[in-house]
């Protein structure tokens, strides 16, 4: 087997990336020559080329000649390039290169966000000093960001939860936040999918840029395409003006596609194309627009089922779900229910300036035995209502509208009411015994198999059995 005669285990630290945007070919090569020793130099001769490199390589520093084709004698194209680049990577340090006597333009460019300017003819040694400063500043900014991220990494936003399942979710959020891959967030309604998406964004280096949310299920299909991708003037009857879509609004930041399972098949194709090439086209437009946005998606639908029903593309599913964060329903986070209830009670009684001391013993029990089909949103709503309704200093089950289950069945007949009571009775015993069926059976004076049988007949879940 051929072997490298000088195995190099320590790869040299990579050179910082620099993008030179210059339409004059000889100047371009000259600059590359002069700077290649210190920097990894990328070249572009026009706006489009510059954006391609910027999106792909993310060089922290760019030099930009304002006179770009097709208007090499004007500055129009250069200013457009400046605006596009800053929109795509707002932290890029862009150094304007201008001709003699064009100081006005240079100052205007700085007003629009350029970092510095430099007049032709280029003195390489002077340019190197300016570049050195720009890279240094960019490096400092980056370190500062990382530091801030690490400090805030101990807690995940305002998300609460001490259960092992939520701890896993928090760990996953922290891990994926620093990457660029798409994340699919799944879970029942009200489990906190949007909160997770927001937390990922806020923990990421994109946190100072837009977090754009779009609910694919809430917008009629005919409007959704232009909402997402934008449209050109005249592309359809009501398109009186050109309009940018949510993808463009998310430049530099994060795009959260909620209820992704509702996206139509043609739009799934367009989304897939974006995920593959980072490019979109407006409706009725021919120009490809490069977008630097991270995609997060959420669904409470079973996408695998949707794939077999041919309603969701499998290739898109694999692209989006490189990483999946699954949120457990509240009924599977026993430890969290009271933590959340207490925190929410505190929040809403402060908001309403009510002095509420806590929950009565019966209310605590009612909270523990309730199944929470609407998850945290249901808990929030019940507590909001309870804070307003409460007359005493403590919240009672009636305030939460969590009165004993069998009472609700009184009108349905004896059998239903009795079964509801039995269910509740057993569930309370299970909660008291931390879901140990053996211990609950003992307390109820039953054998373990009898309790099992009874639970089966009453249609009760056993998945939380901890034995
Ligand atoms: N871990 C948590 N700690 C505190 N509050 C939470 C937590 N998870 C969710 N919430 C709150 O519960 C409510 C519902 O959360 P969210 O809107 O993120 O759920 P969702 O899964 O997107 O629901 P849906 O499917 O109905 O859109 C929000 O008000 C949110 O702030
Ligand atoms: Mg939601």
Task: Walk me through the topology.
Blueprint: E1 17-21, H1 25-35, E2 40-44, H2 47-57, E3 61-65, H3 76-88, E4 93-98, H4 103-111, E5 116-119, H5 124-152, H6 164-177, E6 183-186, H7 193-203, E7 211-215, H8 221-229, H9 246-249, E8 254-258, H10 265-277, E9 279-281, E10 288-290, E11 294-299, H11 303-308, H12 314-320, E12 323-326, H13 334-351, E13 358-359, H14 361-369, H15 375-389, E14 394-395, H16 414-432, H17 437-444, H18 448-457
Parallel strand pairs: 1-2, 1-3, 3-4, 4-5, 6-11, 6-12, 7-8, 8-11, 13-14
Antiparallel strand pairs: 9-10
Summarize the structure.
By secondary structure, this protein is an alpha/beta fold. It contains 18 helices and 14 strands.
The strand line-up of the biggest sheet is: 2-1-3-4-5
Bound molecules: adenosine-5'-triphosphate, magnesium ion
Give the distance, in angstroms, between the N- and C-terminal Cα atoms: 56 Å
Low-confidence segments, given as residue ranges, are 1-11, 149-155
- In percent, how helical is the residue content? 40-55%
Task: Please state the overall shape, judged from the principal axes of the Cα atoms.
Answer: elongated
Structural class: alpha/beta
Mean pLDDT: 86
- Number of distinct helices: 18
Quick one: how many beta strands? 14
Beta-strand portion reads 5-15%
Q: Quaternary arrangement of the chains shown? A: single chain
Largest sheet geometry: 5 strands, parallel
Cα radius of gyration in angstroms: 30 Å
């Amino acid at each position: 087997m051929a072997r490298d005669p000088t195995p190099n285990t320590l790869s040299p630290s990579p050179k910082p990336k620099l993008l030179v945007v210059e339409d004059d070919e000889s100047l371009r090569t000259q600059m590359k020559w002069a700077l290649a020793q210190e920097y990894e130099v990328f070249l572009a001769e026009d706006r489009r080329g510059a954006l391609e490199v910027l999106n792909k390589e993310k060089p922290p520093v760019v030099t930009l000649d304002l006179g770009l084709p097709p208007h090499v004698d004007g500055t129009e194209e250069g200013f457009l390039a400046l605006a596009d680049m800053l929109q795509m990577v707002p932290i890029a340090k862009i150094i304007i290169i201008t001709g003699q006597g064009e100081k006005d333009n240079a100052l205007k460019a700085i007003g629009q966000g350029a970092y510095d300017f430099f007049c032709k003819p280029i003195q390489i040694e002077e340019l190197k000093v300016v570049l050195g400063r720009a890279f240094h500043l960019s490096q400092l900014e980056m370190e500062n960001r990382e530091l801030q991220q690490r400090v805030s990494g101990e807690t995940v936003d305002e998300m609460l939860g001490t259960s092992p399942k939520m701890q896993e979710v928090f760990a996953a959020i922290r891990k994926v936040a620093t990457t660029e891959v798409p994340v699919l967030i799944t879970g029942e309604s009200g489990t906190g999918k949007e909160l997770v998406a927001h937390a990922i964004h806020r923990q990421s280096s994109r946190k100072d840029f837009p977090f754009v949310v779009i609910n694919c299920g809430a917008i009629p299909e005919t409007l959704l395409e232009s909402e997402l991708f934008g449209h050109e003037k005249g592309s359809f009857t009501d398109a009186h003006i050109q309009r940018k879509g949510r993808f463009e609004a998310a430049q530099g930041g994060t795009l959260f596609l909620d209820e992704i399972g509702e996206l139509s098949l043609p739009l799934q194709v367009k989304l897939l194309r974006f995920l593959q090439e980072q490019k979109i086209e407006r409706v009725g437009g021919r120009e490809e627009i490069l977008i630097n946005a991270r995609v997060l998606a959420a669904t409470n639908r079973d996408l695998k089922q949707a794939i077999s029903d041919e309603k969701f593309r499998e290739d898109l599913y694999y692209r989006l779900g490189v990483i999946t964060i699954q949120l457990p329903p509240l009924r599977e986070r026993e430890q969290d229910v009271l933590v959340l209830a207490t925190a929410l009670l505190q929040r809403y009684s402060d908001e309403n300036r009510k002095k509420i001391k806590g929950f009565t013993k019966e209310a605590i029990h009612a909270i523990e035995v309730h199944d929470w089909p609407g998850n945290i949103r249901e808990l929030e709503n019940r507590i909001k209502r309870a804070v307003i309704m409460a007359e005493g200093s403590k919240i009672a089950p009636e305030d939460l509208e969590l009165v004993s289950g069998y009472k609700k069945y009184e009108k349905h007949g004896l059998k239903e009411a009795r079964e509801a009571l039995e269910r509740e009775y057993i569930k309370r015993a299970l909660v008291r015994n931390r879901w140990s069926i053996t211990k609950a059976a003992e307390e109820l004076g039953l054998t373990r198999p009898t309790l099992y049988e009874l639970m089966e007949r009453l249609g009760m879940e056993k998945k939380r059995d901890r034995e």
